[in-house]
Amino acid sequence: MQDVRIYRRTVKRGALAAASGLLAGYTALAVGELAASLVRPQAGPVTVVGGAAIDRTPAWLKDYAIRTFGQNDKLVLQLGILATIGLLAALLGLFALRRRRTGSVGILLFGLVGAGAALTRPDSAGVGDVLPSLLGAVAGALVLYVLIGKLNGADGTASADPGADGRAAEDAGPGTGWNRRGFLITAGITALASTGAGALGRALTGRSGQGASASRAAVRLPAPASAAAATPARAALRIPGISAFTTPNKDFYRVDTALVVPKVDADTWRLRIHGKGVPRPRTYTFQDLLDRPLIERNITLTCVSNEVGGPYVGNARWLGVPLADLLREAGVKAPSKGGPADQLVARSVDGMTLGTPVEDLLDGRDAMLAVGMNGEPLPFDHGFPVRMVVPGLYGYVSACKWLQDIELTTFDSYDPYWVKRKWARKAPIKTQARIDTPKPFAQAGAGTVMVAGVAWAQHRGIERVEVRVDDGPWQEAQLAEQDTTDTWRQWSYPWKTTPGGHNLTVRATDGTGQVQTEQRARTIPDGASGWHSVFVTAT
Questions:
Q1: Element housing 112 (H / E)
Q2: Band of the pLDDT at 173, cuts 50, 70, 90?
Q3: pLDDT digits (tens, 9 = 90+) for 231-270
Q4: Mean pLDDT across 474-491
Q5: What CA–CA distance (Å, rounded) separates 45 from 30?
Q6: Strands 478-479 and 442-444: what pairing?
Q7: Is residue 401 within 8 Å of residue 353, measured between CB atoms?
Q8: Each residue of 122-168: pLDDT tens digit?
Q9: Residue 337 pLDDT exceeds 60
Q10: Distances in Å between the alpha carbon of 294 and those of 374, 392, 398, 486, 500?
Q11: How far, in Å, CA of 38 to CA of 368, rounded?
């Protein structure tokens, strides 16, 4: 009977020790977030560790995360980090029952990991970025030390049995006496204080972005000097289930590495253009760009992580400054004209770097520094105040958001972020067609069912779309009117159903006459390829 009581007491004390570790970890994160709100939000412990994890994740694993979790990949990463921290903190709490000081030092080591991650981030602001992780770790270590002291009766308020080797209870493990009241009061106060610290940190972080929000609200986009032509009425098909011709801002895909969306104040924002073969470096304010002649264009963007039939493609009306004009004013020449730089490296405020072929930017396409999207200033999620938009190139080599620096260099002398991770240096968008309706495994009624979707081959355009039912012949689909070669094109095909299960497959032909390849390829290193198909059961 005595053995049972000892066992129950041991289990109970172990559970309380694990809870002490969890509370210590919670305190560390809360204090860290509060400190980050006073330093900068991007220096928060979870953010810097998560960012470092993203930087060190193999390309195939990132691709898997995007494919599996979609735009929730960052949330999944953060939850994974929190779960790992919670597990390790609970284990440290258990360890601290026998090694109180050592367990507390373990919490401090987490702080050092966070500090190291903060210093190695591409957007690191220096030593100040280590403070949130270190201060949080110190607070967490103190909490664990005090709570385990209460639990072991090693704080002088209750007695505890010595260990087998005569050491004090703080090193010998749980004894028979413990300060129950002191433990519960301390734990409760700590939980409340930590929650308050975290809430205050979030409130201060929100206030720190008010200046950026106010600057965006104050933006009045000027009328373009070169407006986009009116979208043809027959460019948008009225078929239930098909993607809208213009993607609303709230529905436009977002794929990037930013765990915290940068909130940039347009009033203090600056853009620098410099580098190899730039005889006249330039620095621009946001107002400088607004005062220039702007162009307005409908352009479809595509992420290289988009699988065949995937959702990471969208069409919007962009307003911006022609990038070629800015480059020529700085004295930049295309490599074909004798220019020494063949790569433009765009840098974001969060340290992201993207590399774009200079030749493509000066070949006459509507590459721009966008300031507006679908009639409003860029949303923060999509790069406010300024981002790059380049028709015909995948986003990872062209669509830098939160842009702050443009450097001219060469492909041989510098590898941007994604190229370092084994993605291709150059990445023109591949011809693709997608079936939007019917959905995979849908039940189709008898009679005629409208099969419809979109196809894209930016900067080349779509000439033809064909649909095949099972292994039958290819049948030409009806194309919506083309807006421009830089936008996707809707299509439809009236399918006369027959009972049973059927595979519907689609392929497209671009404006050069090149038929979309059947050969399947994954997204790495330069975009997915293959035909999209869906299985449908007809009654």
A1: helix 100-120
A2: very low
A3: 999 999 999 999 999 999 999 999 999 998 999 999 999 9
A4: 98
A5: 9
A6: unpaired
A7: no
A8: 888 888 999 999 999 999 999 999 999 998 876 555 434 334 333 44
A9: yes
A10: 14, 20, 19, 18, 54
A11: 35
Nearest residue to 488 via CA among 398, 370, 392: 392
273 in Cβ contact with 406 (< 8 Å): yes
Interval 77-98 mean pLDDT:
92
* Phi, psi angle pair for 26, to nearest 5°: -60, -45
> Nearest CA to 456 among 480, 435, 437, 432?
432
pLDDT at 2: 65
Q: Give pLDDT tens digits for 43-66.
A: 999 999 999 888 888 878 877 888
What is the secondary structure of 308-329 as a DSSP string?
TT-S-EEEEEEEEEEHHHHHHH
**Which pTM was predicted?**
0.87
Task: List, in order, residues 6 or more apart from 269 with CB less than 8 Å away.
Answer: 285, 286, 385, 386, 404
Tell me how far CA of residue 253 lies from CA of 70, 301, 373, in angstroms: 9, 9, 13
Report, as an integer, the average pLDDT of 92-120: 93
How many Cα atoms occupy the beta-carbon half-sphere of 382 within 13 Å? 21
> CA–CA separation, 153 vs 485, rounded Å?
76
As a whole number of angstroms, the distance between CA 35 and CA 37 comes to 5
For the chain, the straight-line distance linking the first and the last C-alpha, in angstroms and rounded, comes to: 69
- Burial class for 422, CB neighbours closer than 10 Å (0-12, 13-18, 19+): exposed
For residue 108, pLDDT over 50 is answered with yes
Alpha-carbon distance of 205 to 175, in angstroms, equals: 44
374 pLDDT more than 90: yes
Alpha-carbon gap, residue 504 to 536, rounded angstroms: 7
Alpha carbon distance 171, 152 (integer Å): 9
Burial class for 209, CB neighbours closer than 10 Å (0-12, 13-18, 19+): middle
Helix, coil or strand: residue 120: helix
Closest CA to 226 of 319, 155, 295: 295
Cα–Cα distances in Å, from 32 out to 22, 110, 135, 194? Answer: 15, 12, 6, 10
Query: Rounded to the nearest 5°, which phi and psi values hold at 302?
Result: -135, 135
d(CA 369, CA 184): 58
